[in-house]
Amino acid sequence: MSENESLIFEVNVILFRKQLIMKKLLLIALILSTFVSCKNETETLKTITVDYPKTNKIVVTDTIFGEAVEDPYRWLEDDRSKETESWVKSQNEATFGYLDNIPYRKELKERLTKLWNYEKIGSPFKEGDYTYFYKNDGLQNQYVIYRYKTSEDPNTAEVFLDPNTFKEDGTISLGGASFSKDGKTLAYAISEGGSDWRKILVMNTETKEIVEDTLVDVKFSGMSWYKNEGFYYSSYDKPKGSELSAKTDQHKLYYHKLGTKQSEDLLIFGGTPEQKHRYIGGGVTEDDRYLVISASISTSGNKLFIKDLSQPNSQLITVLNHTDSDSNIIENVGSKLYIATNLDAPNKKIITVDASNPTPENWVDFIPETKNVLSPSTAGSSFFAHYMVDAVSKVLQYDYDGKLIREVELPGVGSASGFGAKKEDKELYYSFTNYVTPGSIYKYDIDKGTSELYKKPSIDFNPEAYESKQVFYTSKDGTKVPMIITYKKGLKLNGKNPTILYGYGGFNISLTPSFSIANAVWMEQGGVYAVPNLRGGGEYGKAWHDAGTKLQKQNVFDDFIAAAEYLISEHYTSSDYLAIRGGSNGGLLVGATMTQRPDLMKVALPAVGVLDMLRYHTFTAGAGWAYDYGTAEDSKEMFYYLKGYSPVHNVKKGVEYPATMVTTGDHDDRVVPAHSFKFAAELQSKQEGNNPTLIRIETDAGHGAGTPVSKTIDQYADIFGFTLYNMGYEVLPTKIEEKIKG
């Protein structure tokens, strides 16, 4: 090579290297511009203003233990007034005007719709000559009941009852179904607009004809058949005033005999001053021998009675005359009763006792208490003891002598449910799921102890691309709290991952791993989904529940705050990318957390929340929640404690609260929408800065049960769109990822 050629070669190499550097710089610039675009969009979002409707203040003052408490939005409690109706309409106009400007809201809805559109089948069950199952073809608003002759091919299954025909928009849903002992008659309940009030219809299962007048004004009720003659159900007297908000305080148990009018139904229990209970349930044992009655003053603790139906005019026999425990009869063999109880056993156990003398001093342990919480069931010739081990399922099978047969081998780590069947059955069906595994159904041979896959959904979601990790973090007082964090594999712990922290923490309810189509879409967008098992729940038994009640309720909020701080400290996310979400009691959790620590999160999503803690007990059956909350009337100490965290009473002027979208339903008669109305009004009145404070009010919808699929998809598209938009995303995170890779 000559000197000139060598020089030309070196120059070309230098130019080539410069080109590479320029390409790298351009790529870096592209990446930076993408994120700058997001940042600039965040800044733009902060300048967007919402034309909030004016909410009139008409101050009503209550004096509680000598202190005057002003309630400027009391008028919003009247769900029948034209003024409230107008307010709801104007708030929705403002909210949807905002949501309409989110550029990828339609994309989210399309993806939710596509992923939702797969066949979902429930576990089969036998009634009379038929095997029944629930199925949704994909986007049907309500599940349909199918059946086939048990002796024939399951592929011959036909539609038996289709709730989608009740009303075109799907807002009338099936609220429960119960077959007579011979399977020839069905009693089923319907809910209109999501209300807890039900109507009961009675159908001939052979002809599918309605055979009786409809029972009306039924609430918080099962339907339990005695032979083929009639069934027991529960209800309240219809309240004076609004049926959606007026107080319902005295539950009653009735017996309806087929062929008679509802006005002739026998009052079995309740209805007298000495028998005043807020929740009463009646169930007949499988052998038709006993009527079992549970009577409660609140959502925790019950009295227990039995009535021998084989003896005419038999009297009620008291099993428990106090509400110091949660106890129920799960089985009987003749007069031998099997009772699941947490009396002197916070994690529950099963005892046996003879029905002739069934009080606690005669109880004998059958399956003793363990360190894990027990939820038992029966099927065929066995008891199935379902335990929660750090919120994950473990199932043991016992015989009727209390001898351990085996541990059921589950398909993985997650939540198993459905270990129940009739005594004559040789097999049962159970479902299994976790945060990345869509629910599958397994067929279990009771004698052999073997499982086989029965139905696995075909869904456009790859579980192998995601992972769940359980961690234990430390709460404010040193308590260790478990949390499961789920996300796409390869997640970078850079503090910039959009994260939803979801919690509940109350009423002895446990949050165990389960798959959600909506959460799958969230995680597809690179989102993290985190669920802590807060105190107040049932994951570790009665002691864990009680540690989050009444004067210890702050523990629940502290646990949730500590979960958020853990996610931030471990760089899963940061305050700019964190949303907190919860519904009902979880709505209270979000409301209390965002008012106590508004700096901690970017977005707050309280749904159908209990938000006015001074008046919650004055609506519908709210007084029954006093075991968890206490009431402002209990004592001066309880009043000040409730007032100290009540979200409605702790919105302060001049504070910058996170971007908030309150959600509720206009037919919610469990947690009345006035809670959400007042909270939204307070936020809009006092919010500092430009973070939006919206309320999305679903029409013809209640507390959540029976909500049509179409409405559910719309809700999630709005929730995720609002969340990502206020985290600064101009386009969906997946689009940013595609742009970088491209």
From TrEMBL:
Which residues does the UniProt record annotate as the domain Peptidase S9 prolyl oligopeptidase catalytic? 513-727
InterPro entries for the chain: AB_hydrolase_fold, Pept_S9_AS, Pept_S9A_N, Peptidase_S9_cat, Peptidase_S9A, Prolyl_oligopep/macrocyclase
Claim: Hydrolase is one of the keywords in the record: yes
EC class (word): hydrolase
The Gene Ontology biological process terms listed for this entry are: proteolysis
User: What EC number is given for this enzyme?
Assistant: 3.4.21.26
**Record localization:** Periplasm
Gene Ontology cellular component annotations, sorted alphabetically: cytosol; periplasmic space
Arranged from A to Z, the UniProt key words for this protein are:
Hydrolase, Periplasm, Protease, Serine protease, Signal
Q: Which GO terms describe its molecular function?
A: oligopeptidase activity; serine-type endopeptidase activity
Q: Which reaction does it catalyse?
A: Hydrolysis of Pro-|-Xaa >> Ala-|-Xaa in oligopeptides
What's one Pfam family here? Peptidase_S9
| Domain Peptidase S9A N-terminal: residue ranges | 57-456
- Family statement drawn from the similarity comment of this UniProt entry: Belongs to the peptidase S9A family.
Q: What does this protein do?
A: Cleaves peptide bonds on the C-terminal side of prolyl residues within peptides that are up to approximately 30 amino acids long. Has an absolute requirement for an X-Pro bond in the trans configuration immediately preceding the Pro-Y scissible bond.
Q: What is this protein called?
A: prolyl oligopeptidase
